[in-house]
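User: Quick sanity check before I run a bigger batch. Here is a single chain. Can you write out its predicted 3D structure?
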Amino acid sequence: MNHIPTIDDYLKAPAHPKRQSGGTRAAGSEQRDPGQPLATVVTIVKNNKATLPQTIRSVLGQNYPNIEYIIIDGASTDGTLEIIKQFNDSIDLWVSEPDSGTSEAFNKAVSMAQGDFIFWLSSDDWIEPDFIKTAIRSFLRQDSDFVYGDMLMDESQNSARIYRGDKDYIKALRSGYPRFNFVTMVVRKECFQSAGLIDPAYKFFSDYEWVLRVHLNGKKGIYNDALVVHHRAGGIGESYSMESVLEHLRLLRKYELPKAKAMSAYLYYFVRRMPGYFVKLVLPGTLYKKLKSAMG
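Assistant: Done. Predicted structure follows.
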């Protein structure tokens, strides 16, 4: 059985020799409101300078007074780091260094977080000004270990699709093929201390595996439809490959969850796309691209 990483693992790990860092915490100037719970917002980024500024501004524009903002950059080479440095005096802590991927970067951020609550905001996403305040109020009103809401998928410049959070998330988790809005979750840091961090052994389903582990550790969440994350379409988890399918089935086998719903969804997906795969196989690359563009 592979080792589930812990916060202590990352606290004890030496810094990468190429590490760069900055922010107000690095400069020794921290300001906190002891009268309000501290919320840590984490952004993981690598070579994404196009959308990162909107993500950062949406965090800095929050109307909740006690937020710590941490950005972990995977040694970007496209100008992303220069953008981060432009916000140096407004970000609590940023670190830029090579890493093995998103899971390692996020685990590193959690180990550095000082907040009672942690929210992971992707560098492709953004939130409304009252998001963190709404989340904290949810925790204060109802005893829970995490809160989650809805995801607004920005599919194009003029269209968006709402993905509602499932109130019966436990049933969804145990179905083997849940539609759980992980990107909307705000989590008590204690969940990472008791259940462990993200398992980097999973490339496609690390979020699902972590939520399952949290659930099996007796933690409970609540749904709040006032929590909305604006999410841009695309990314590693929004297209299927044989590698991702096999990883999912391996996860279901590990936790002894049903496979029928997942297999049905994958079968439908691949059958629906089979004509496109065939056309791509037989047509020259340039002709295939022209045909695909013409068909919209």
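The longest helix spans residues 260-282.

User: Great, the batch can go ahead then.
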